[in-house]
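User: Could you check the structure of this?
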Amino acid sequence: MTRPEQLQTVAILVPGHFNDHAVERIDRTFRRVGIERADPSLVTDEMRDNVRAIASFGGISAAFMDALPKLEIVASFGVGYDSVDARHAGDHGIMVTNTPDVLTEEVADTAIGLLINTVRDLPRAEAWLRDGSWQRKGNYPLSRLTLRGRSAGIFGMGRIGLAIARRLEAFGLPVAYHNRRRVEGLSYPYHPTLKGLVEAVDTLISVVPGGASTEKAVDAEILSALGANGVFVNIGRGSTVDEAALATALAKGTIAAAGLDVFADEPNVPRALLDATNASLLPHVGSASEHTRRAMADLCVDNLVSWFSERRSITPVPETAHVKARC
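Assistant: Sure, the predicted structure tokens are below.
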């Protein structure tokens, strides 16, 4: 066991801006080292000699890890870690952790809120009231869509997908799902292909992480199969959607509507999606409450504390679950 005063000598590299609560905890416990961004060219000799950990929102490349020969752990803030080269880390004995579970319920709540906004057009209804149209023009037009009679498909039945499914059940919607493989013990109908899922439902909620295997998985073919009454909601990663195909599908009525909290090149949202009147758009706020972000920050730092005091991580990602702490 490492004594608390010994932890204060451990150098933790924090690229760019980081969560304030996490920074406060790192400053109390470790020796924080700042760097403008996770760029290998910015690594100094002192960093090479001393940095044993990184705490960041992601964006940690293999080259950046290689520039820090004493690096033992990357504590990534967030459940998604596709911007961290975890495979390279695992191959080189570097632990990578993320922050699952603590944001599950918040993100699931956001997904349901975004779905309701999308089908009932609530943001525009509120704008109608605020800009005086209710007084000048009368009642807001009836929403064309409703949750009533819909069937939902979840693309990515992990922790968050399951939390969303349980909420959808409470709304009276039947639920099916597609994963790379069937989830043991789950009673929801399973579809071995994404196309098979969207052909069976009219509401698709995507919760899958980014990465090569999901790149533009929701494309023109999938949207066409979802159909003219189809609603698409993305709470996972923007890279999983062909945004040009989605914009075209919305404009042509290939699908009825979409609700998006994530985009491929954040914060840059394609103009065609901004102009789509049948799209409800949010600025990646799935887990963005003070309560949940604080819990995420605590878990991020708890992984660092556990690693350097007990020589184990709390929430290792699968690619680095085999990594052992150096003696």
